[in-house]
Amino acid sequence: MAEPDRQQELGELLAASVTAARAGDHATSWRLTSEFGTRFWLVEPTDLPDLVDNLTEVQRTEFHVLRAAAADRMELHDDTVSEVRAWRARAEADGDIPSAVLALSSLCLVAMVVECDDAVLTGGLAPSAALLTELAARIEDAGAGVSDDTPGHTRACLSLAAMAGLTCATSTENPGMRARFRGLSDRFTSPSAQPGDRVLTEAQQLHADGRAAEAVELVTGYLAELDEELSPTQAYEAHDVLGYFALTAGEIPEDMDTAGVLEHWRACAELALAIGAPLEGMHRAEQVCQLLNADGAYDQAYDLARRYSVALKGAPVSPALLNLRAVRARSALGADLPYEAFALAASTADWSALTPDTERTLACLSIATMAAEEAGEAGTVGSSTTGETVVGLLERAAALHLDRGERISAAQILRTAARERCASGWYSRAVEFMERALRVLEDVPANTEDDMLTWHLADWNEDMSAVWEMAERPDLAVGYAERAARLFRDARDHSGSAMNWVSAAELYFDQGDGPSCDRALDLAHGELTSIPDAEDPSDAGENAVWQGYHTLRNLRQN
Predict the structure, then answer these.
(1) pLDDT in tens, 269-300
(2) What Rg do the C-alpha atoms of the chain give, in angstroms?
């Protein structure tokens, strides 16, 4: 498309967005927000006069409204705050006080998200409680003279602001402000003009009051009367609320109504796609994919994530987009698409590393590691080069765990890298990784539980014994097996101790050292009988350690 055409389309988009907002046409507003986010995100406010002919003040303000909405959907919290503040300042300068009040309510919702989700916000933002107090006062001032003759724009802004304040007060468990905003919502939300908003607000308050069954019944009845084709945004919001009710159905998160969450939020994701508003449904799509992946429905998760990726083409890299890419990578792995899974997970890990979300980065590194192994990048015996992709990913994950202060996790990943190098027959590199893992373990803070650290040191010695045994150095392997056995005993893991004494006995037997073999078997027997409620099974095959013990005993006796 030629640049002048694109410039003209931005002007038309801003004008259409103003018209849709004034008419209460939410479906068009949602679609235009997604179009703005995927096509015009890189446009700066200073560029507007050169890009849009005859730019009105209302359109200039609408630019910030759209940019704030798009940033909010993409979880770009700093950008959301910046654009809402610009929106509020322009509205006040233009004398559009109702719009300025609505902008303030958007700041309340950002504060709610930041506080409830522990989201990262580098720019300053007042606590939700302070913002709610200011918002209530501004709504009361702006609505002092509201009557039946008041323009619809004013009433709509005050109604939406009051409901946003009520949502924020409810979510942040601010009972005083919740009661105040309940009154404001009742005052400014007209049942005839905004029936859906009133029903959903009432249901959310019933749910917050502990009357969950009534809340579900109210929204379910409202949804049954809707025609989703004629009222897609109202249907979306009803499904969204019902999904939240299903999510919080139990006393603990594990008791949630998973089927209900999946049904309703999946409907949200599909509705958003159907009306061309993928930014609106992106977060719900990601959550649905997570649930589908957890249930093993990888093909379904992959299909939904793929369709969203196509619809979001042109959108900037953002936390929400990275989350969606991460779940798509996991579904691709489960759907037996390892090459695509690797490409998605590795690139997403690279972008995620530039953000504070280390959990997502670690998850993507883990997916990329598994995908690389399935794609044939894991090591094979006799090759020193294959598997370096996997090892590199493991090293990055270990370094990130160290940055988080998780030394035991870092050591475990370095040991995984050592096993990978063993599979390639590159034993010197495996020993290098094992030694690095030991140094990490030795630096674990002193306040770590003694038994836990002792157990991990025992486990490290067991792995090191296996490395030397694979390297055909049984003389070195046996010493580590004995140290592992003693440390497992100190950690009160008698089964682990017995297994390593049996391993040591086998190594001694193979070397022809009968007395040392017998001594190790005696110690293994002592550990086996120290296991609570332990009995020598009649069929040693039922227990691998007992089986190993008896096999070696019989060999020694014969």
Answers:
(1) 999 999 999 999 999 999 999 999 999 999 99
(2) 31
The number of beta carbons lying within 10 Å of the beta carbon of residue 173 is 9
pLDDT at 181: 93
Residue listed under structure tokens 């002792």: 454
* Two structure tokens written together for 372: 């690389």
CA nearest to 326, candidates 307, 351, 354, 297: 351
Are the C-beta atoms of residues 329 and 303 closer than 8 Å to each other? no
Closest residue by Cα to residue 215 from 185, 158, 260: 260
Cα 69 from Cα 126, distance rounded (Å): 20
- Per-residue tokens: 514: 């009968």
Tokens of 157: 């802004």
CB within 8 Å of 403: residues ≥ 6 apart: 358
Supply the pLDDT for residue 382: 37
Residue 375 is predicted with a pLDDT of 85
**Per-residue DSSP letters for 428-473?**
HHHHHHHHHHHHHHHTS-TTS-HHHHHHHHHHHHHHHHHHHHHTT-
What's the rounded Cα separation, in Å, for the pair 364 and 351? 10
Q: Is the pTM of this model over 0.90?
A: no
Distance in angstroms (rounded) separating the CA atoms of residues 81 and 112: 12
Q: Which ranges of the chain have pLDDT less than 70?
A: 1-7, 191-194, 377-386, 446-451, 533-542
Could you give the CA distance from residue 493 to residue 249 in angstroms, rounded to a whole number? 40
pLDDT given at position 293? 97
- Quick one: which H or E segment has residue 475? helix 474-490
CB 484 within 8 A of CB 458: yes
Compute the residue count for the chain. 558
CB atoms within 10 A of CB 522: 12
Using alpha carbons only, what angle is made at residue 344 by residues 342 and 350, rounded to the nearest 5 degrees? 100
Residue-wise pLDDT for 199-209, tens only, equals 999 999 999 99
Amino acid (one-letter) located at 246: A
In contact, 341 and 329? CB cutoff 8 Å: yes
Report the alpha-carbon distance of residue 17 to residue 64 in Å, rounded: 11
| Amino acid 120: pLDDT | 78
b/e for 363-402, b at 16 or more Cβ within 10 A? bbbbbbbbbbbbbebbbeeeeeebbbbbbbbbbbbbebbb
